[in-house]
Amino acid sequence: MSGALVASNLGGFSTRWGDAPNIVESSVWGLKHTDFFKEILPVNILLVFILTLVVFLITYLKYGRKYQIGKIILAHSMVRFKTESRFMSIDMKLVFFGILSLVITIVGSIIFPTYEVSLSALGIIIAIIGAPQNKRKQSLYALGIGTYFTLLSIFVLAQVFGHSKIGINGYIESLLSQNSKSILPVLGLSYLGTLSTEAASWATAVSPIVYKIFPTHLGAWALGAGISAGSSSLITAASAGIILAHQTSGYEEDSRVDFPTYLKFGLLFSLFMLIFYSVVLPLYMSFLK
Questions:
Q1: How far is Cα 213 from Cα 196, in angstroms, rounded to an integer?
Q2: How much is the pTM?
Q3: Where are any strands of DSSP class E within the chain?
Q4: 2-13 helix and 217-231 helix, angle to the nearest 10 degrees
Q5: pLDDT in tens, 120-146
Q6: In whole angstroms, what is the distance from residue 190 CA to residue 228 CA?
Q7: Gap between the Cα atoms of 93 and 130, Å rounded
Q8: DSSP 8-state symbol, 165
Q9: Burial of 274 (0-12, 13-18, 19+ CB in 10 A)
């Protein structure tokens, strides 16, 4: 599940609609859907392959001989599911509203990028309307009120950090101006900022500052890469991690993903992500030119 969290962050960084920081960066840099498909998606796909290999090796080394037992249990579960699926039925109403909300959110944003946020909100509303009436309230409060307040407080913290008078806005701009020929400061600041606050909130606070000094697409990808790595460093550094911690809080201890259990994997792999992006991004962008 720790690997899945990192993969979720990489998937979010790979498309214009994939994550809140992308929407912010797209509006500041004027990025199009094709820019994501051509310039950052291939890089992230390569990183996902590396992530998959790392997760597989860690799992194999940790469980050793138990790996074969796990395969037997998985095969048994698949057979059991296949048997029970004969007595299951598909709610076609839910399928229809689910597909409709995805089409409006994804296809609609490609055709009408100006109304991307409005179409995303409409997609969410349609998905909730399509849910059974007795489940709508449960859907809205599925994450728990504490999760929403946590995200709200993090957004406030990021805005205070980036404020021009009481925050570190001026220091960030000064540091980037002195190192305007390298993306390393952007990567580092994005990583530390996201680690200290949260992905979407940090992108909102610093995107205009980074754009002043790095108005090229490489500047946008460096900011997004630092945020993606920072999002994967701590379980509190992105909304996906906060949600994962909440959803697994009731699991058994060896299946629960909380701050200390995720720390070793997330921190080490996120540092590898920084090194990977710092080398691959400039080379790949030069290749495209």
A1: 23
A2: 0.74
A3: none
A4: 160
A5: 888 888 888 887 777 766 666 655 666
A6: 9
A7: 7
A8: T
A9: buried
